[in-house]
Amino acid sequence: xxxxxxGAVVPMIAVDRExxxxxxxxxxxxxxxxxxxxxxEPGQRIPSTRALGADLGISRIPVLDAYAQLLAEGYIxxxxxxxxxxxxxxxxxxxxxxxxxxxxxxxxxxxVSDASNKLSVKLPWLYRSGAFSVGELAYDxxxxxxxxxxxxxxxxxxxxxxxxxxxxMGLKEFREVIAAYLRTARAAHCDASQIMVVNGSQQALSLAxxxxxxxxxxxxxxxxxxxxxxxxxxxxxxxxxxxxVDNEGLNVxxxxxLAKRARAAFVTPSHQYPLGVTMSVTRRLELLDWANRFDSxxxxxxxxxxxxxxxxxxxxxxxLDLASRVIYIGTFSKTLFPALRxxxxxxxxxxxxxxxxVRRASDLCxxxxxxxxxxxxxxxxxxxxxxxxxxxxxxxxxxxxxxxxRRELSGEIxxxxxxxxxxxxxxxxxxxSDVAISQKAAQEGLWLWPLSRxxxxxxxxxxxxxxxxxxxxxxxxxxxxxxxxxxAKESG
Length: 492
Hints:
There is one protein chain. The protein is of the alpha/beta class. It folds into 3 domains: about 1-100, Winged helix-like DNA-binding domain superfamily/Winged helix DNA-binding domain (Arc Repressor Mutant, subunit A, Orthogonal Bundle), CATH 1.10.10; about 160-385, Type I PLP-dependent aspartate aminotransferase-like (Major domain) (Aspartate Aminotransferase, domain 2); about 385-490, Aspartate Aminotransferase, domain 1 (Alpha-Beta Complex). The chain is built from 15 helices and 15 strands. A hairpin with a 3-residue loop joins strand 2 and strand 3. Helix 2 (about 50-55) crosses helix 3, helix 5 (about 145-155) packs across helix 12 (about 370-380) and helix 14 (about 435-440) packs across helix 15. It is elongated and about 90 Å long. The relative contact order is 0.11.
């Protein structure tokens, strides 16, 4: 311990009565800066509150308040009968970070996980508001009045018990409504005891990755696939095995050649993301057979199955599963609004306890209010009515986009996946940089998600994923002409 410096020298402190800060704060700030900058040494004695107050020409009270705060935070220490000193336990090196005005040069590659360094960071086109933004909906057609009434109803019913931690699986009434909906609309085999309510499909994917995988375990992902799915798997330490997708969906035979004993396959069979392919029944049965034979799991992301424009909705893969190998994920972000942050997982009975344990370690439980309101929204028929209205609306917008693309870019592009969902894909000639075009377009509010970023391997197809949910049909021709201008600039 350093020797105490017993002589108390009055430090250079000035107080300004016109300063917006109160006097005690000015004194506190001055002492704190001098201590951190080593203008006051560890163990150095500072004036008594009475002496400093007299020297500054102010009342002793603000000095007492300042000293009390400095003492509470450990900058000074007081010894009865001996005085007050700068704390002697400060480290020897000069501490400048708290008072420096010059920027600190951070080195993000140090002291962070390898997994976080691998995540997608610079995605200017991700979930922005404007033309072609993927994931944006027709918010102006949402039934705000009905939703507000339901929210108000449940706010008025708020009780002490509803403010406590709730069931980590989710509100029972809400889970029962979801189970009934899935059995009817998606031909799923489930009951409320298997359903876990989550904060959107991204949390569902993250939970599934943590439950199913150990560091380094191989998992099949579709090639191409959803970027944020790959990020969730990377954080869980998985080894990603890209399995090619053709016009029948995931190529199971190719997956078995690449990694026959992979721990799981993450698939979007009803509407493959991003290409829009529907997995054939042959491939579905092959995938289920693979999971049964090799004790593997299938994670089915059924993210926008409600919207299909040229046929009836496709039954989910989980409904064909007789051996409980499929973990089914759904979300309300695509049908209602993403800020709702409500999704669900249908968990095989043998895994419910494992999912519960991981859920508790992640965020304990879902919020209560929106679950209660949405349970009524569905059970009273408002959800089905909203799907019918928006399906007609999105069908019109899709048709307007396809027509404009064919008129403006005929012969230059190929259109894929326009039969369902709220996005389609246009492919570009080889050698065109979709990333460069997307970055330039983003500067002018045109949100083109580059198709090449959804590939892991070398056989990359350039193109764009174009969302059409938020752009009015009459605005599509203008926005496609803007897209054509960007393509023209790139081609020179």
